[in-house]
């Protein structure tokens, strides 16, 4: 078992400032990888361990876009949405924090060890559990308070009716944090929890990265990173086939989102995912429901 690289006490300067304000704040955190920075802007992305391809793609895409804008992505290194969020931040060249329910030297699930090793290069593994402590099932919901507590906002991407992600959302609300959710297929079990959060007014619905940033109205905290430049026209084949079709159509004239769905005969989910990719790469801007090519 690898030892921690550092530890943080509650009043150390780099201890997450928002985390200090929660009633059950851990008095000590252990970390591996890169030390936390005082001025980091943390956004949590969480969801089901058994997502749809749609959910996986959106988790990675949103994490990528937020990391490019300088946010540090926080999640729990679980299967599914958590792992996709970490991967998205890493692929943008950004930073991500994985909050573990085990000591930082013992990564769970074990199959995510390669991902954890990648995180250590630019991000951090974090835990309140000392090296010799055992991992109990109760640790998993308990660590969610750290995920929610250290983050300015929590984004829920696909959560069934019973989900650890909903525990994180509840805690975020208790801590007076912003909660956002991506609407999902109303016939899908993996979207029951997220859709109910939106329906009850507990989560703000977002469909694009710009929605989330606009809702937070807090872009002043973000320090955009010179990471991945927008692709030149020559690199357009790297887009998904759907994304390329939509982009070429938009080159002719602006379209509303509904027009794209109707005229191209595509599912709303397909169009949403493709437009999010195009927006992140700087190829389109979305004004309300209107989509305009920017280059």
Report on the architecture of this protein.
- Helices cover 36% and strands 17% of the residues.
- With 295 residues, it is α/β, with parallel strands linked by helices.
- The protein folds into two domains: 216 residues, Rossmann fold; 61 residues, Winged helix-like DNA-binding domain superfamily/Winged helix DNA-binding domain (Arc Repressor Mutant, subunit A).
- The strands form two sheets. Strands 1-2-6-5-4-3-7-8-9 form a nine-stranded mixed beta sheet, sandwiched between helices. Strands 10-12-11 form a three-stranded antiparallel beta sheet.
- Helix 1 runs parallel beside helix 2, helix 4 crosses helix 5 and helix 8 packs across helix 10.
- The longest helix is centred in the N-terminal third of the chain and has 16 residues.
- The N and C termini lie far apart (50 Å).
Based on CA atoms alone, the radius of gyration comes out at 19 Å
User: How many DSSP H or I helices?
Assistant: 10
In helices, the fraction of residues equals 25-40%
User: Structural class from helices and strands?
Assistant: alpha/beta
Order of helices and strands: EEEHEHEHEHEHEHEHHEHHEE
CATH level-1 class of the largest domain: Alpha Beta
Overall spatial form: elongated
The CATH architecture of the largest domain can be named as 3-Layer(aba) Sandwich
Chain-averaged pLDDT = 87
Strand content: 15-25%
Q: Indicate the low-confidence ranges by residue numbers.
A: 226-237
Spatial separation of the terminal alpha carbons? 50 Å
Number of strands: 12
Main sheet properties:
9 strands, mixed
Q: How is the largest sheet built, in terms of strand order?
A: 1-2-6-5-4-3-7-8-9
CATH fold type of the largest domain: Rossmann fold
């Amino acid at each position: 078992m690898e030892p921690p690289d550092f530890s943080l006490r509650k009043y150390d300067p780099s201890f997450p400032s928002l985390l200090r304000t929660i009633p059950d704040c851990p008095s000590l955190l252990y970390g591996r990888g890169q030390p936390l920075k005082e001025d980091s802007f943390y956004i949590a992305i969480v969801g089901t361990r058994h997502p749809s391809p749609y959910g996986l793609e959106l988790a990675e895409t949103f994490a990528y876009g937020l990391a490019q804008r300088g946010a540090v992505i926080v999640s729990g290194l679980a299967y599914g949405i958590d792992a996709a969020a970490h991967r998205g931040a890493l692929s943008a060249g950004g930073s991500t924090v994985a909050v573990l329910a085990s000591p930082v030297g013992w990564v769970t699930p074990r199959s995510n060890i390669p991902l954890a090793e990648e995180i250590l290069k630019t991000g951090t593994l974090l835990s309140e559990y000392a090296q010799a402590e055992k991992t109990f099932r109760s640790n998993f919901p308990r660590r969610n308070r750290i995920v929610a507590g250290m983050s300015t906002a929590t984004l829920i991407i696909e959560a069934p009716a019973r989900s650890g992600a909903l525990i994180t959302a509840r805690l975020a609300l208790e801590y007076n944090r912003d909660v956002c959710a991506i609407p999902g297929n109303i016939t899908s079990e993996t979207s029951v929890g997220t859709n109910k959060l939106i329906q009850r007014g507990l989560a703000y619905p977002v469909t694009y990265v710009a929605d989330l940033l606009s809702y937070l109205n807090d872009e002043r905290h973000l320090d955009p990173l010179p990471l991945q430049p927008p692709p030149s026209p020559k690199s357009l084949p790297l887009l998904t086939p759907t994304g390329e079709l939509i982009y070429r159509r938009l080159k002719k004239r602006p379209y509303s989102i509904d027009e794209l769905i109707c005229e191209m005969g595509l599912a709303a989910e397909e169009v949403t995912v493709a437009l999010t990719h195009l927006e992140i790469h700087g190829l389109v801007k979305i004004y309300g429901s209107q989509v305009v090519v920017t280059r």
